[in-house]
TrEMBL record:
Keywords: DNA-binding, Repressor, Transcription, Transcription regulation. Residues 34-53 bind DNA. This is Transcriptional regulator, TetR family. One of its GO terms (molecular function) is transcription cis-regulatory region binding. PANTHER family: HTH-TYPE TRANSCRIPTIONAL REGULATOR RUTR, HTH-TYPE TRANSCRIPTIONAL REPRESSOR RV1474C. The keyword Transcription applies. It comes from Pseudonocardia ammonioxydans. The keyword Transferase does not apply.
Amino acid sequence: MPRPIDPALRRARRLQIIDAGLTAFAEHGYAGATTAEICRIAGIGSGTFFHHFPTKNSLLVAILELGVEETIAFFTARDPQRPPRQVLSDYVEHAVGDLADPRAAGFITVVGGLTAHPEIAAALQADEDTTRSRLRDVVAAAQQQGQVRDDLPADRLAVWIMLLVDGFASRVTTGGFDVRTEAPLLQEQVGALLDGPRSTPTTPC
C-alpha cells in the first residue's frame, strides 16, 4: 500500500525546485537553465523534478504564479487599522524588496523574452490583474479617508503606481542601478502621484 502524500512536504519540495529554477534562469538564461542544471542546484534527481513540473516552461509559470500568491498574501495580511495610504507605501517597499534580490534582473530579462508563449503571457496577465485590483481597493479606501487625491479614479491611480514600479524594475536589468539607494526616490514619486498637483500660489500685485 503506498504511503500517503504529505502536502506540507510536497509543497516544500516544490518551493525548493522553484527557488532553484529562479536561480538557474537568472544565472544562465532560459536556454542555459536546463532541467539538469536546475536539479543540480536543487540537489534532486530528474525524476523528482518531472514529478512536480512536466516541462521547464511549467516551472517558469509556477515562479510567476508564486509571485501572484505572495501579492495576495501581502494585501490579505495587512493590518485593517493601518492607514490605506501607508499600505500603498508598504506595497512599494514590498516590490522593492523583491527587486533587491540579486536574481531579479536576470529573471526579468528571461521572462521579457518569452511573452510570445501563451502560458507565460497568461501568467503575467494574472499577475498584473491581481496587483491592479488589490491596489485599486486600497487606493479607493485611501480616497474615502481623504488620504490621497480624489480627482482621478482609483483604478487609474493604481495603474500609475504599477507603471512607476514597473519602470523602476526595468532599470534593474540595465546594471549599475542600486535598488536600495534609489528606492526612496521611487517612494517620493509614488507619493507625489498620490498627492496630486499642488496649487500655485498667486503672486501679489
